[in-house]
Design brief:
Elements: E1 7-9, H1 24-42, E2 46-49, E3 52-55, E4 60-63, E5 66-69, H2 75-82, H3 104-117, E6 124-126, E7 151-153, H4 165-172, H5 189-192, E8 224-230, E9 239-240, E10 252-255, E11 271-274, E12 285-286, E13 290-291
Parallel strand pairs: 1-2, 4-9, 8-12
Antiparallel strand pairs: 2-5, 3-4, 5-13, 6-7, 8-10, 10-11
Length: about 290
């Protein structure tokens, strides 16, 4: 079933050079099939990201160890844990497409429901209403109810949550296994991302492109991904497990490229935020989740 994952340490892709004496087109087709078959055995895993330090272009950032899904949350995952069909799976809307057209609030609810389903302590609470989304005010995630400040995260909880912006970027850069690539897993965007030049203007099933050095898929393309933080300029000094500004309005960070993005917007260092209203959604924005190691 969706979410029945096995955790494994990060590992790079193993692709051998088989091109000698073979035409380029045959090699590309063969490698694509090999990678997809290899990827199929790896999809649905969680990856342990060991803690470490990276530079975000402004300052040194240190993050603690965390566990993150190696794929974007799919339509099947979302429906399994929420029993709703909010959002879509993109063009074709098959079960293995990333779930998109969801608000940040929808992703928060998913995290808590999945946590409870797997016997973990939910991370998110809403004001004084506790951690069960069923007990939250019916309009909490809509513009009519106001901003997102009442949503709080218990960082000591064992449940699922959205990655912080720093965690997301550290994972996209492949953590301590990073080779310094521009995109998540390569200096060639076509190898690791569905984006405007190769997607046909539609989303694709998760895991079709090569993973990064940790074994994480689609961090540079396919769907943009929600993060926990409110958007703000980076602080100038060193940061230790930053979680973003304590308050904001609706400007939540989202990272990575989408099937409609330019190559520049797929770079691991590229920042973005969405939106001007609390319940705004877009056909290019999805998410993946993380949690504390057990």
């Amino acid at each position: 079933r969706p979410g029945a994952f096995a955790e494994q340490p990060g590992a790079g892709a193993d692709v051998r050079d088989i091109s000698a004496g073979i035409s380029i087109s045959i090699v590309k087709n063969a490698l694509f099939k090999v990678i997809r078959l290899k990827n199929a055995a790896e999809l649905g895993n969680r990856i342990v990201v060991q803690g470490g330090t990276f530079h975000n272009g402004t300052s040194a950032v240190t993050v603690s160890p965390f566990v993150i899904d190696n794929c974007e949350t799919t339509k099947a995952d979302y429906i399994f844990y929420t029993a709703t069909v909010n959002g879509t799976g993109g063009a074709g809307s098959a079960d293995d497409y990333p779930i998109v057209h969801l608000s940040w609030a929808d992703a928060i609810v998913y995290c808590n429901l999945r946590s409870v389903s797997e016997g973990l302590t939910p991370c998110y609470s809403y004001g004084s209403y506790g951690t069960d989304p069923a007990d939250w005010p019916g309009s909490w995630g809509t513009l009519a109810f106001g901003d997102l400040n009442p949503v709080q995260c218990d960082w000591s909880a064992t449940g699922y949550r959205l990655p912080t912006e720093a965690e997301w970027e550290f994972a996209a850069r492949a953590g301590n296994l990073s080779q310094g690539y521009t995109y998540s897993g390569s200096n060639s965007v076509d190898e690791v991302a569905w984006y405007s030049a190769n997607s046909g203007a539609v989303g694709h099933p998760v895991g079709f492109k090569a993973p990064n050095e940790l074994g994480l898929f689609d961090l540079s393309g396919n769907a943009i991904e929600w993060c926990w933080d409110f958007y703000a300029a980076y602080p100038s000094g060193p940061q230790i497990h930053p979680t973003g500004p304590p308050t904001g309005l609706f400007n939540k960070v989202c990272r990575g490229g989408a099937y409609s993005s330019s190559a520049a917007d797929c770079a691991s260092a590229q920042r973005s935020w969405w939106s001007n209203v609390v319940d705004e959604t877009d056909y290019t924005v999805g998410f993946r989740v993380c949690r504390k190691p057990q």
